[in-house]
Prior knowledge:
The protein is mostly helical.
Amino acid sequence: MILGELFVQIGVVIVVAAVLSFLINRLRQPLIIAYILTGVLIGPSLLGLSSQADFFSTLSDVGVAFLLFTVGLNLDWKHIKEVGWTALGVGLGQVVFTSAIGYFLARALHFDLATSLYLGLAFTFSSTIIIGKLLSDKDDLDRLYGRISVGLLIVQDLIAMFILLFLGTVGSGQSFESIAALVLGKWLLTIVGVFLLSTFVLPRLTAYAARSQELLFLFGLAWCFGLAGLLSVLGFGIEFGALLAGLSLAGTGWSKELAARFRPLRDFFLIIFFVFLGAQLTLPSLEALAVPVAVFSVFILIGNPFIVLVLLRTLGYHPRVGFMAGTTVAQVSEFSFILLAAGIKLGQIEPSILTLATLVGLITITVSSYLITFNDVIYDFFSPLFRWFEPKGKASLGKRRGIKTPEVVLFGWHRMGEVVLPKVRALGKPYVVVDFDPAAATELTARHVPFIYGDAGDHDFLSDLKLEKAKLVISTIPDEDVSLQIVHYLKHKKFTGVTIVTAKTSEHAAHLYRDGAHFVIIPSVLGGERFAEMLKKNQLNQKTWVKTGRR
Length: 551
């Protein structure tokens, strides 16, 4: 009978989620909103159709594990290293400033000392689940702000795990030194152990399992649950174990195949996670906690992104990068609930605080889903407000380095741009590289490569650069908005040279061709090496490029 009831309740959840998803999709809004609304609708506050909370909580934990496992599979340590120090500096700074401001806000709202400390720390962390899913859906994990955001998440998760491990040993009666040594010892042994396995054992096991697609899937499933379960027993938590399991398989050569096979499972269980989160909302609590919920929600949605924006700008990043990375941290994390639950278990805070966090979480997750999904559009709308925050000099920086109206302008240096650059130099024409990554500026300057720091998506910057005077414009930035900005600007200026831009999909490419691009690179179809060879063999004239690009 219980089994039948569970099946019926799962069926109700899926049907309601599907109906609401159709409506939300019709309105062109993120589907996460439909899942949360499903939880609110079937939860105890309204229809009360779901009574098996423990069962759905377990399914949601599985969804968390699958998401973090697939996120880990798609992380390349080489790419993480590109923003490693940035992520570490900004991550630590964000945790310090957010927790401090959150603490003082809680004290101003008359919470006691312990509760204020817990709330300040809890609202510091951002949701890996939300960020990972939305950046993956937007295909933005490989963009500069996406790589920085993932780095921030890793730093946050490490700090959260350290705090949770620390709290897990507080009740043992040991001294602070003993607890710290135990926590650090666990970290060290785990990292070294998984590193050795991923270097010497996992590549061979994965290669053998890959002989059968079914065996490869089962091996990935076993490794995900096995490592996550083991680390959970050791006090690390399922989340960290699943992420580490994915990271350890990322360099085996079969990560893309594994990620593709796990995606349907991940999506199903994540639906349950968001439904379960929505079901935690109880309407009577909203009225009693209205003021604290509003204050903390505004702080997380506005204050947190602003902190990240300022920190990244301090490190030399363009406001666009800072703003877009900032929008990704504007919500409460799953670790926030785990941290507060640990405090309640230790008797240090009241259970009602978890209800407050849930309400703040639902509001911030809902709003931040829009912020992340439409962050490009939002930044473009508010970009005049960030003019004062932009680096001074722009194109004049290039003039001070002796750059005179180059014939070739290459936007974007990392990845494909790095591959294309030697062929651009081999053309024997005056050229310049444009990027707004400070790391690119430092490296290219050290190589004595003509370089200008600037935002390719900024119309005023393109005008200052006098881009229309070039003969060949190449953008390796996989952002349709940036590509459209370049194409539209050149079309408006009656550009007579060749325009080559990058798109993520064939649909975006078709749009760019209609708007005047002569050649569109689709990285998933045409790699940087292949394009570099084409660039080497072709002459700089529209006829050749148009013929090649529109075949």
